[in-house]
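Q: Entry one of two.
A:
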Amino acid sequence: MNPALEIVILGLSLSSSWGNGHATTYRGLIRGLAQAGHKVLFLECEKPWYAAHRDLPRPDFCKLSYYRDVGEIAARHARAIRGADAVMIGSYVPDGVAVIDQVLALRSDGVFFYDIDTPVTLARLRDGGADTYVAPRQIPRFEAYLSFTGGPTLGVLERAFGAKRAAPLYCAADVDRYRSTGEAPVWDLGYLGTYSPDRQPMLERLLIEPARQLPERRFVVAGPQYPETVAWPANVERIEHLPPDAHASFYSRQRFTLNVTRSDMIAAGWSPSVRLFEAAACGTPIIGDAWEGLTELLPGGILIVTQSQQVTGALTRMPEAERLALAASARASVLSAHSGRVRADELAALLRSGSGRRHDKSAPTKPIAHQLDGAFRS
């Protein structure tokens, strides 16, 4: 039996799900790690917009610590970073390039990158964007580049950017928290997601236009940052922010939910959002746009559409037995392949294969474990 791992994760946010999907992704993953006996220290940069919208300030499945700037990482957490079995740095971490340099200065092995935004990252790297959270020179130094996008993109990371190893680490659903609540449907079709200019045309086509065509039906869109210029029909309810604790109820009260994908991720394919798996775990039938890899990741569990007429047809004519079968197929796929515990086991295997510390029998495991125990509890 493999020993438990002690892991440091530096990510965008664990404490606040406001305006980002990273928080629920990390929560499901780290809960899965905790269930398997692994110990995690999560380091989050203190930002006022997250501090004002914290919905998990004190997680019970890991230690969460905040830092104000890059220098504070070494000043307060050098011991934990040096002693951990593995360190994983996520995409969109503020001052990410400097953060990675700081971690690599503290240790040269066992450092991994987890990209929850791979197509966006690659587009920025190719454009030479100064605001990219990882630099091309840093990619070959990671033990592995873990990507929420699979498929051909993994080969690009290795061939074009010199990654030692690129491996998929898809998002996942925390199935203990994302399940049907048994509530009666309130809306015929809903959508949960932060506003994004490249997603908005598809949201217009697949939800707003069907709402106009079916004024007797009820629709809902939850998520922040939508501009005042969006013309919402009267039968579309708006929810500005929906905390994760309310997600299961939200999905359970929809007859169908909509999954809309950003254009970069459609182009790359194999880029399932965490919302896709969470909705499926709640047993809500999914209507979504098409991209490569979708039917392999969620076989038989999604109604793929391109036009508003297909949506209105599903809402008005799909037999109830077919609607329920769609939901059951998607939930079965999540339980078998996309739960937080499944993904946590995949991550632990990746970390062990890329780091020669505790699982190397020649390594002095006892002193490291002893030193780290205090660092993770301090």
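Q: Entry two of two.
A:
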Amino acid sequence: MADTVSYGAVFLIGFLGGAHCIGMCGGIVNALSFAISPVERNSVKLNFILLSYNLGRISSYTIIGVLVGALGWIAQEALGPVSFVMRIIAGILLVTMGLYLTGWWTGLRKLEKLGGYLWVYIEPAGKRLMPVNGSGQAFVLGAIWGWLPCGMVYSVLTLAAVGGNSWNAGLLMLFFGLGTLPVMFVTGRFAQVTKRFLQTSVFRNVAGVLILLFGLWTMTGAIYFSGKHNHSNHVIDSEMSMPGHSHH
């Protein structure tokens, strides 16, 4: 188990962030639905295309998680314990994600714009795959779209990096991606109905506040465990400095 958050927690973040997912990926999901003939839109073929697209997207999240986990490990080996800083950053990003969903503050868009510099080079490869007419094509498109600049993904990636473990980081991103799956799949089937529900102020406010609270909990936990760790070290140092203490 990752030392910061449970897999269930990141699954919930992915699910609650559905309103953000619709804004970021809703257009491409709608395009998948309308790329096939009207006769086939309610068929098994559409289900496979939508599922393949989402599995491709989730696969990319998992791979990015493994890479970020490796970077977190390298950072901790080179710089010492940096998990406290990463936890605080992750908490801040989650708070800004919550504020973004509620509409109270949209500063997260600035972070997504930074990721846009890389996306400019990746997006054309995805566009060349349109229109999609098969599951394999949809999977590759989803794998490409998994690199789309997204503040919510960045928030969870920071959490994934904390453990400094590629395996845990990859699993965290896998569960986060699975959390986004229900909303993205249903949107492909019932685009207008789903979008109307997820864009309601009630859903956005509830989801935003819950993610905001999770971000505050993440930061509070980081401060608590840091203080506890420092206290333990202080006790050990005090015992080591006591008269008569022998070193072996």
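A: Comment on entry two: The longest helix spans residues 201-240. The chain has one domain: 7-240.
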